[in-house]
Amino acid sequence: MVAQRHISTYCRRRVSLTLCFSVLFVHLSVFAEPVTFSHAWQQLAQVSDQLQAKAQLVNRAKAEEDAGDALNYPSLNIAGSYTRLEKPIELDLRDLNPLATLDTSTLPAALSSALAEIPGSLFVTPFTEQDVFRASLQAMWPIYTGGKITAAQGIHAAQVSEREQEFALARRELFLQLVDRYYAVSVTKTLVDTQKQLVDSLTLHVSHAQKLEQQGQIAKVERLNAQVALENAKVNWGKTKRQYEMTEIALARMLHIPSVEPISALFLLEQQPSLPYLSQLTLTQHPALKLLEAKEAQANGLVDLEKGSYYPTVYLYGNYTLYEDDSLFSQVEPDWMVGVGMSIPLISRDGRSGKVQAAKSALLQARYTKAQTKQDLSLLIDQSYRQMLQAKEEADALDVSLALATENLRLRELSFNQGLSTSIDRIDAELSLTAVKTQQLGAKYRYMQAYAKVMAISGQVEEFINRTQFQGAANAG
């Protein structure tokens, strides 16, 4: 509201509209949107193009599975044709017995002359026209295919499961990326504040040093040491501000919002989750294992599909004539027919035995890969868990160092003001305190990364999110 009043006052002056909007954008960009980790995760799940692409792969696999159900149904189609013959199909009765073998010389003269007077066209019977038009309704229904249809449908179902597990893996990877970027903003912002405190403290120290130099209580070199430390602190402060800006931009771009301010703080759990329980969850529910199970199911289906090439195919078929010409052949041909057909493969050129062997090799590959993945996941959860414990121990151990550095700075400050210690001693104490704060902040950040990784591997992403909300409520209380 304060910013809006300033902008309104500025825009009421006689300035250009473009400049007014530029000022408005600058003012509004300063105010970042406070976002909890839970809200950031919900936002990312909605706007992530990567997840949307994986979701479409799942939809595609489901559509292909639905299409595979149609293999159980009969096919029905309309067939039409136009054929032009070299000449119409005709039958000459004189080419048939007994006329074909009749010797007219043995016949009585009257009968022989009578036959000779009959035109040849009377002996010819046309069966078709030279232009033949036909249209028919054809149906075919496979009732036994050697298990090929069932195998194909099983492969489609396994492909759906594979795509779903790929989506789950992408979701977990995106979660870990969000943890890194979200808490990196918090860490760099705290570093900016820490460096700012160092700059403020050294600025005050330089002011005191200048006064003491003027009073002749310290040498010029003492004051110069303080000024050099101050300038170095300002440089480091500027570097941390740039780092903070970069991490904030990365998070904002990830969430598709102009600016963001993380408000979920870093935390350390007093009671760590059980490693055996985490390992059990990982080895029974991890999407990578389920994905390989889906590949194994596909390989099994492929074996059955290739074996089906050795079995006969039995089908029902039917034909109904919709349109035909008025030829004799059309009158003799029935209007409809139904029947049962069978096809038995004897010798094939498609290498059926080789395909069956290849499918079996794919099945063994999936099983071996699954066994290796189990070992890798077991090692990964153990390593990540120990990294989490190590970070927790470092953060806890630095509590004592932080107390020591704070007390040391207080004593060095008193000693310097009383002329009992040098400026270097006082600056070293200040830098030591800043270093301890930075180390502890880094240890907490590594703990958050390791804890998030452990939760993601074991499939407890929601547990991590609930923990961030609980810690936020506890801090607010």
TrEMBL record:
Gene Ontology CC annotation, any one: cell outer membrane
PANTHER family per record: ABC-TYPE EFFLUX SYSTEM SECRETIN COMPONENT, OUTER MEMBRANE PROTEIN TOLC
Principal location listed in the UniProt entry: membrane
Pfam families named among the record's database cross-references: OEP
Residues making up the signal peptide according to the UniProt record: 1-32
Keyword Transport applies: yes
Gene3D superfamilies recorded: Outer membrane efflux proteins (OEP)
Subcellular location: Cell outer membrane
Keyword Cytoplasm recorded: no
Family: Belongs to the outer membrane factor (OMF) (TC 1.B.17) family.
Name of the featured protein: Outer membrane efflux protein
Alphabetical UniProt keywords: Cell outer membrane, Membrane, Signal, Transmembrane, Transmembrane beta strand, Transport
InterPro entries listed in its UniProt record: OMP_efflux (IPR003423), TolC-like (IPR051906)
GO molecular-function terms, A-Z: efflux transmembrane transporter activity; porin activity
